[in-house]
Structures are given as structure tokens and as C-alpha cells.
Amino acid sequence: MTDSFRVGRAGSNGAAAAPSAGAAAAPPAGETAVRPGGETGVLPGRETGVRPGRETAVLPGGAAVVPSDRAAGAGEQADGLGALVGRVAGTEDSTPLQFAVALDEDSYLQLDDVVVTVRHIPGVGSILTSGVVTQVRARHEGASFGSDVFLISDGVLPARVQEIAEVSTTRVEPEVYVPPRPGEIVRRASGPERSQALYFDQMASRLPVGRGRDGAPIYVNMEFLDGTRGAHVSISGISGVATKTSFALFLLHSIFRSGALGARAVNAKALVFSVKGEDLLFLDQPNVRLDDDLRTAYAGLGLPAEPFASAGFWAPPIPDDQTGRPNVTGRTSGVEAFWWTIAEFCARNMLPYVFADAEDERNQYTIVIHQVATRLRLDAAPYGESGAVKIGDDVVTTYAELVDVVVARLSDEQTRQDWAGPVTGVGTVNAFVRRLRSSLRPLRPVIRADLTPGPRRLISTQDQQVTVVDLHNLHERAQRFVVGVVLAAETARKEDAGPGGLLFTMIDELNKYAPREGTSPIKEVLLDIAERGRSLGIILIGAQQTASEVERRIVTNSAIRVVGRLDSAEAGRPEYGFLPASQRTRATLAKPGAMFVSQPDIPVPLAVEFPFPAWATRRSECAQPPRPPAAPRQDASVFSRLPAPDDDVPPF
Ligand SMILES: Nc1ncnc2c1ncn2[C@@H]1O[C@H](COP(=O)(O)OP(=O)(O)OP(=O)(O)O)[C@@H](O)[C@H]1O
Ligand SMILES: [Mg+2]
After folding, report:
1. 361 falls in which pLDDT band (50, 70, 90)?
2. How far apart are CA 185 and CA 22, in angstroms?
3. Strand 560-563 versus strand 233-236 pairing type
4. Ligand 1 atom showing the smallest separation from residue 237 Cα
5. Are 360 and 439 in contact, with CB atoms under 8 Å apart?
6. Which among 77-86, 163-172, 236-245 has the top mean pLDDT?
7. What is the mean pLDDT of the chain?
8. Mean pLDDT computed over 372-390
């Protein structure tokens, strides 16, 4: 047994934690109360008698009053971390997994505080039970009626305010699961005891994810993030205040810069799909709001307050523009335009990713999709330098032309069987054609052979640590296409390369790509990553407003679950069953920057606060805003984003 288990050892701040004479006295004794009207009785849970070492005043009418300054010397014990805060309460059942603490009058415990108590068992030794405060209650002991509070305040009725903290056990060391006994001293855990209570001492490599309520760092076990024992992160919370995207990026910053990955950090990469505005296009720029306080907050977590040094940015090209410039407005330099040529689309079997909506799943044309994809793969011959193809006599340089060729083949009696499958009915073929036509406008910016391909056209995670793919200017259907195609390619690349560096893939609005109901090629890719990614080195960091809308197998495969502010209806759903009842309620009040982090090692999710981003999250936060692009291009891109008459009507 180590010294730290012994009661009475000085806390890390040097405050003596030994109980004083007053605090070590017998369990609280009671006093006789007299209600106005002369009714005399024993206060609930109390014996008649005078507390040892305390003065008792007698009020007119004979009532005994406990002096407000309870146990002598209480102040000495409760003035800092590691100090005595109270005793295991005897009014509620104490169990090895849950117990209550009656607090000294001069001490307090707040939610998420970490406490320890030690029980000595003859022949076994000292059993240290540590836990996290999940609820604190204060009440007048001795009051029976709502109106008693006035009498008590006036000193007419004797009663005392007593605070009781409920504690969820996090660790019992050694593993002898006995209840802490009422009357045992309870201390605030600090230093090594806190680390032990929260299992930080057992983490071979630990990742700082923010500060606890006590200001000290909270860690996540890296082994549950890097695939060693688990992988994947699921972050949920309502839009705007839950800070899901900010936390996901902070997590990446911590992964790359905390040293938790050791030498593996050099080869670790991140692939970030950005769906909301151009917020993530500035993460290589320092935030103008970065001040000394923020630097100190980062330093306290062992992290530099710096932007992402190695980042590459991709955005789709401006539609109907022949220069191949990226469709971004806030940043011009350093953003590459990405697209796939018609030849790549045909050769790499990308057609299924065009049909990835819930609506596609309800229809019967899957066979047609695969048949057409096969024909394109076999019949499309590369043509020219820009990625065009020739199908029969038809030269195809745009997505619109490709759609026309496919529709012509399906409409022609001679070729239909070959392109749609031998037993496919005309109705099914027509349904396919309608959906194919509706993909025209969403997809034509990213599937084309009318631009001169540059050297960095294809999205690649090779040359930089963080790869940001900006999708916000694309139609949802095209967003799904891009995410599906890029992830499938990365999965295949990782499979071929064998175990190598880790790839952290951050997907915002995961529910759009892997909804709970139905199947789609993109959902298949994501499920594959959720289930096999660990061994491939692909780690998913998914964010969504509602975990209840995301495929269950993805959520259950996430070792780390994080919750920011939730709305109360969502907080009640079974997906958040890992949160104790009190944390569910608290999640409805969580402020920006406050998250609850659950990890397999620790039975209670931990509340953390992470610092404000050190990198710019919008153009106005850049110290030197990147140059704006030429005005006419902006106009073109704005109008191109308006829905066209043939666009799909959303299914709501
Ligand atoms: N640590 C922090 N402390 C306080 N505020 C923060 C912190 N991090 C981010 N914010 C602020 O909170 C706002 C919302 O953050 P963020 O965009 O990450 O939320 P979100 O949950 O991803 O929202 P959405 O669902 O709309 O994408 C940001 O504009 C940012 O200014
Ligand atoms: Mg977000």
C-alpha cells in the first residue's frame, strides 16, 4: 500500500489532511427541537444530546440550537485541494459503486470534483475508493414544512443546512469492493490521487482533451483512439453552441502536438471534410483572439497555442468556369481545385456513389446502377489529354454528355439489355434515368473533362498533415459523392499500403452520410471504416447534432463518445445512456467549450473545458486575411448554387 492511501497524509498543496479533534468526533449528534406552538420532538435522523466539543444555545421555548461554526478546525482542512471535505454519510446506503458524502460546513464539493476515501480492513489493509461527484444536495435538516425556512432563518426553529454530495465510484484500489463506511473521512483528490482516481496513472500514452472543473488536465487514453484497444470518436450536440467542430479540431491539434503519439505523430494525418461555410479554410492561420490567457490555457495542457502548420486545402472548381479555379470566396492562395475526370469516373467505378440517397435505396434500380457502371468501365476508352472518354462513337467531355450517352443507350432497344441488365423492366430503367438526370446539376462541377488537369487536382493526404476538403459549395448529393469516393480511395490505399501512419478522418454531419435507416455505398464505406478501420489505421471522428440519427453500429464502435450541449428531448434517448442522469440534465445547459467525454477506461464521463481555437475559424479571425478573389467569379459561383428545376426535392 502506498503512502497516498493513508488518511491524514498532507495534500499536494501542503495542507494537513489529518482530521482535527472536532472533525474526528463521533457522528453528528442531534438536538431537541421545539416547534412554535410548543411541540417538542427529536429532529429527523438525530438523537437528543449535545454534540461533543460544541456549545449549544437554548432558544426561548427551550429549543437547542447548533452553533453555525461547526466542527472546530474545519477551515484548516477545507482550504485547498487534497483537503478533507467531509465524511461518508450514514443517512443513505453506501455501496462500493455509489456513496454519499456529508460535507463539512466550511467545505464544498461541486459536480465533477474527484474525491477519495480510505477504509481500513483488518487483515486486508487500506482500501482506497475514489469517485466523481455526480450530484450535490443542500437542505435544512430539521425542517418539515416549506414555511420552516423562515422560522429557521429567524432563529426560532433549530435546524442546520447540510450538504450531501453523491459520488459515483471510479476506482477501488486494491479491488476489494466493500462500501466506504459511514463516518470515514472523505478528501478532495489531487495530484497522484486524482490521476489514480481517473486512471491517468495507467495510461501508457495519454491525450489531453481539456481541463476538468478543478482546472487540472483531463486525458483520454490514446490506446482507445489509435486503434490499439479501440478507435473512433463520436461527438454530438446541438448546432452552434455544442462546439463539435471546434472540439474535433482541438482533438486533432492535441493528437499531433501533445506528444501522445510519440514518433507516430510524424506520419499521422488528418482528412477533414468541411460542410459549413469556409470556417476550416483558415486553420493554418493564427487566431487574432490569441492572447496570453489563452496561451497559458494551452500551456496548462502541454500544448502550443499555434495553428496547424502543415495543411492543404481543396475545394471544387467554380461551375461553368473553364479556368479550374477553386470555388471559394474567403481565401484564394493555397486552395486547390479538385475534380475527377470522366475517364476516372468510368474506370474507377464511381457511378454507385452518385446514387447514395435514402430515395435510391427505396427504388429497385440497384441492378441498373451496377450494370451501367460495368459498361462504363469496360466501354469507355480514354480520349485526349483532359480525361475525356470515347464510348462507341461518342466523345464525352462533360458530365452532361455522359448522362446523355447513358440515357441514349438505355433508351435504345438494341443496347438496353446490355446496359440495364437482361430482365430489367422499362419502369425501373425510367426511374434510374430520372435519378441520373437529377444528378446533373449537383455533380457536373466535380466530374468533368473540360479543364486542364493541374498537378494537385486529386485530393491527397500525402504532402501535408491536415487535408481539408471544402464541400460547403456543393449540393448535398455531390457532398455525399465526394465523401464516398475519397473515403473509398483512402481505405483502398491503406489496405494496399499495409499498416502505416494513422489517418484521422473528421466528418461533420455524419448522419447525412451514415443515417440510421437504409443502406448506401457511402454508408457501407463508413461502416467498413468503423468496423475495420482500427486495423487499417483509419480513425473516424464523426460529429452530428443527434447521435440517434446515426447508424447504430458506427456509434457503438466509437470508443470515445463526446457530448456538448444537447436538447432535452435528445438527451433522453438511449444513445446517451452512457451519461448518468445528472449529466444528461447538465448537458442541456452546457456552455460553448464544455464537453462530456466518455472513454472505456473510466466508468463516469468526465466534464472538460477545452480552450478557444488558437487558429482562425473565420476570415475575420485571421491576423492577415487572405486576399479576396476577383469579384465576377463570386457572382458566378453564387448563382450556380441556386437550385435548378430538375434538382431533387428534399424528402420532407
Ligand atoms: N472552447 C471554446 N470556448 C468558447 N467558445 C467556443 C470554443 N470553441 C468554439 N467556440 C465558439 O463556439 C462557436 C460554435 O462552435 P462550432 O462551430 O464548433 O459548433 P458546432 O457544434 O460545430 O456547430 P454546428 O452544428 O453549427 O456545426 C464558434 O463560433 C466559436 O466561436
Ligand atoms: Mg460544426
Report:
1. low
2. 12
3. parallel
4. 21
5. no
6. 163-172
7. 82
8. 93
Q: Is the pLDDT of residue 362 over 70?
A: no
Question: What does the alpha-carbon distance between residue 411 and residue 139 come to, in Å, rounded to a whole number?
Answer: 79
Looking at the structure, tell me whether residues 309 and 458 fall in a common domain: yes
- What CATH number is attached to the domain comprising 485? 3.40.50.300
Segments forming the whole domain that contains residue 173? 3-190
Distance CA 610, CA 563 (A): 13
Q: Looking at residues 193-214, what average pLDDT do you find? A: 94
Could you tell me the distance, in angstroms and rounded to a whole number, from the CA of residue 311 to the centre of ligand 2? 19
Phi first, then psi: what are they for 481, rounded to 5°?
A: -60, -50
Contact in structure between 512 and 279 (CB atoms under 8 Å): no
pLDDT at 26: 34
One domain for residues 433 and 506: no
Closest residue CA from atom 24 of ligand 1: 239
What is the pLDDT at residue 452? 83
For ligand 1, the distance from its centroid to the CA atom of residue 543, given in whole angstroms, is: 12
Residue nearest to atom 15 of ligand 1 (CA): 243
Does 504 lie in the same domain as 595? yes
Give domain status of residue 527, yes or no.
yes
Q: Do 155 and 229 lie in a common domain?
A: no
For residue 508, the ligand closest to its alpha carbon is 2
Q: 226 is written with which cell numbers? A: 489509435
Count: domains in the chain: 3
Average pLDDT over residues 346-372: 84
Tell me which residue of 168, 112, 159 sits closest to 138, measured CA to CA.
Answer: 159
Q: What is the pLDDT of residues 561-615, one digit of tens each?
A: 999 999 988 888 888 989 988 889 999 999 999 999 999 989 899 999 999 999 9
Whole-number pLDDT of residue 21: 35
Residues with CB under 5 A from ligand 2 (ion): 244-245
The secondary structure of residue 17, as a DSSP letter, is -
**Number of the ligand 1 atom closest to the C-alpha atom of 612:** 1
| Co-location of 289 and 404 in the same domain | no
Pocket test for ligand 1, best of 246, 250, 276, 288 (most atoms within 8 A of CB): 246
Atom of ligand 1 nearest to the CA of 276: 27
Amino acid 584 reads R
- Point out the ligand nearest to the CA of residue 592: 1
Closest listed ligand to the CA of 621: 1
Pick from 440, 2, 390, 348: which is nearest to 192 by CA?
2
For residue 583, the CA-to-ligand 2 centroid distance in Å is: 22
Q: What is the tens place of the pLDDT at every residue in 220-279? A: 999 999 989 999 999 999 988 889 999 999 999 999 999 998 888 888 999 999 988 888
Element (H, E) at 315: strand 311-315
Residue 438 belongs to some domain of the structure? yes
Between residues 314 and 72, which one has the greater pLDDT? 314
Does residue 290 belong to any structural domain of this protein?
Answer: yes
What pLDDT, on the 0 to 100 scale, is given for residue 623? 78
Give residue ranges with CB within 6 A of ligand 1: 237, 239-240, 242-246, 276, 545, 592-593, 610-613
Determine the residue of 243, 563, 567, 610 to mutate for testing ligand 1's pocket, defined as the one with the most ligand atoms within 8 A of the Cβ atom.
Answer: 243
* Cα(480)–Cα(512) distance, integer angstroms: 8
Question: Quick one: which atom of ligand 1 is closest to the CA of 247?
Answer: 18
Q: Calculate how far, in angstroms, residue 244's C-alpha sits from the geometric centre of ligand 1.
A: 7
